[in-house]
Amino acid sequence: MISPILPTYARAPIALEKGEGAYVFATDGRRFLDFGSGVAVNALGHAHPHLVAALTAQAAKVWHTSNIFQIPGQQRLAERLVAATFADTVFFCNSGAEAIECSVKMARKFHSHHGRTERFRIATFEGAFHGRTLATIAAGGQKKHLDGFGPKVDGFDQVPFGSLDALKAAIGPHTAGVLIEPIQGEGGVRVAPPEFLRALRALCDEHGLLLLLDEVQSGVGRTGKLFAHEWAGITPDIMAIAKGIGGGFPMGACLATERAAVGMTAGSHGSTFGGNPLAMAVGNAVLDVVLEPQFLEHVNKVSNYLRQQLAMIVDRNRSVVEEVRGHGLLLGLKCKLPNNEVIDALRARGLLTISAGDNVVRILPPLIITEEHVREAIGIINDACLSLSHTPAQDAAK
Question: One of 243, 249, 334, 336 is an active-site residue; which one?
Fold first, then answer.
């Protein structure tokens, strides 16, 4: 018999009922150090007082009006995002997948506006994850996400991650743009090198294409800059964000230059709930914190410390883990054992992490963690690795 909740998730046997800072508490009383952050969503941890106050204050006023009316908080958040980024304009939605959909529609509309209706295809990269809608699973191109949902939505061409030559070969008269995650999170915490992003920017300029970035997971301070592409010194034409900008409240946004957004006129796109007053109150509160002068400096300091400590874990436990990947507080441990076994061992000891492709354990703590939190996490990881390195299977392998 099917469960009342559609059984599309393989859930861990934990029910979390409250959180405080970097910790969450289960209904059975167990406490966990949360180094998963709801898959990079809870950027400021749990129950952050500034976010709670902002949401509570707005909840006492108005929750929803739809976009047929002016929404002051939306105007303010858009102006702040424009001031802090490459963008000239912002469309608000509810999720990363919706932000990607808007990005793809905008890229197609840009070329159509200029009379190039044949240019609708988007080049993407193998291993990518851009969402779960029919269009975004086609953009990701992963068989495990596409199986059973055919026919595949047309308009996307995958090339190997990091291969400039393959991308050049894929560009043709129907290509409208290139879409990439600066760091593939779901795909195994694989970082696109700065020089590769710079080459993409130059290639798009050369061929009259738009550069689309998916910073749903890597954005809003997670890498130590407001957005990960800043490390490469480039700017995109269009960028999708979500996760951290809502601090736990469902929210996404598509940021774009005026040039890229030229075709997006009244009626060309919309959202009933996108940019609602509750989400905007939280989004503005998140920016209040993330844009404080010392905030990103803190992220860089603590992330460097965490990476150094994880490198020591690898050196000491090479029968279990073999590599540290990522940037900032979007990190991964490439495992030699099945990553789900490592995740289970960590959870049993009070540390929450997230799985990723290529047998990687993702480490995505709140951006507010301290070195004390890092030391606690490292102690748990080391203990779990030592335990796993002495399992019967491991001993037999030796």
Answer: 243
